Amino acid sequence: MKSYVDRVMNSIKFVSDETLSLSLELLTEAFNRRTQIFIIGNGGSAATASHFATDLNKIKNVNGLPGRAISLCDNSSLITAYANDISFGAIFKEQLKNLANPKDILIAISASGKSKNIIEAINYAKRNNIYSVGLVGFDAGDMGICDLVLHSKSTLGDYGPTEDTHSIICHFLAESLSLRLNQ
């Protein structure tokens, strides 16, 4: 257990305090403007996306309005329809086409930063004035294209500690946002 926790802690220590602060500022502005927040990921990162959306939606802003967060991982019928009819690489991008507006936010969670469907969604966001935030591990893969990158450096293939680090970041942001909005 100590070895595992040490790997999580090593991953966390690489996350920039400045980037965390910028992420919190972005989420605060999103709540105050009632901006839509879309969250995506694959596998364990999909579970983190769903959990983060849940936490954000439970927070209320100063006017008592809840967050507007959607995990694009949660509609299995739509995901499999896009995967079957277009490609698996398009499952998130196509949902953004249907739902997102300029100035919305896309939060992309990926341990490797190399998933085609994640990169396609980020590229779509960039072309359509949707702000992108990446939570990524390992060597950051291709996620440097995000407007803001929360990089938790970790050993290639060390998924558990990387995914745990992303979960900790999401919990930290949700708790900090709640405290900030309810002062």
Can you describe this structure?
This protein has a single domain, classed as 3-Layer(aba) Sandwich (Rossmann fold), CATH 3.40.50.10490. Helix content is 53%, strand content 13%. It is built from seven helices and five strands; from the N terminus they run H-H-E-H-E-H-H-E-H-E-E-H. The chain has helices at residues 2-12, 17-33, 44-58, 76-85, 91-99, 116-127, 159-181, and strands at residues 37-41, 69-71, 105-110, 131-136, 148-151. It has a five-stranded parallel beta sheet, sandwiched between helices. Strand 3 (105-110), helix 6 (116-127) and strand 4 form a beta-alpha-beta unit. Helix 5 runs parallel beside helix 6 (116-127). The longest helix is centred in the last third of the chain and has 23 residues, at 159-181.
Q: How would you describe this structure in keywords?
A:
single chain; 183 residues; alpha/beta; Rossmann fold; 5-stranded parallel β-sheet; 7 helices; 5 strands; 53% helix; globular
Strand and helix map with partners:
Layout: H1 2-12, H2 17-33, E1 37-41, H3 44-58, E2 69-71, H4 76-85, H5 91-99, E3 105-110, H6 116-127, E4 131-136, E5 148-151, H7 159-181
Parallel strand pairs: 1-2, 1-3, 3-4, 4-5
Helix pairs in contact: 1-7, 2-7, 3-7, 4-5, 5-6
| Cα-to-Cα separation, first versus last residue | 37 Å
The parts where pLDDT drops under 50 for at least 5 residues are none
CATH topology: Rossmann fold
Helix content: 40-55%
- The first-level CATH class is given as Alpha Beta
CATH architecture call: 3-Layer(aba) Sandwich
Widest beta sheet: strand line-up? 2-1-3-4-5
Strand content: 5-15%
Total number of beta strands: 5
Topology as H/E string?
Answer: HHEHEHHEHEEH
In total, the number of domains comes to 1
- The CATH superfamily bears the name Glucose-6-phosphate isomerase like protein, domain 1
Rg from C-alpha positions?
A: 16 Å
Number of helices: 7
- Class by SSE composition: alpha/beta
| Major beta-sheet overview | 5 strands, parallel
General form:
globular
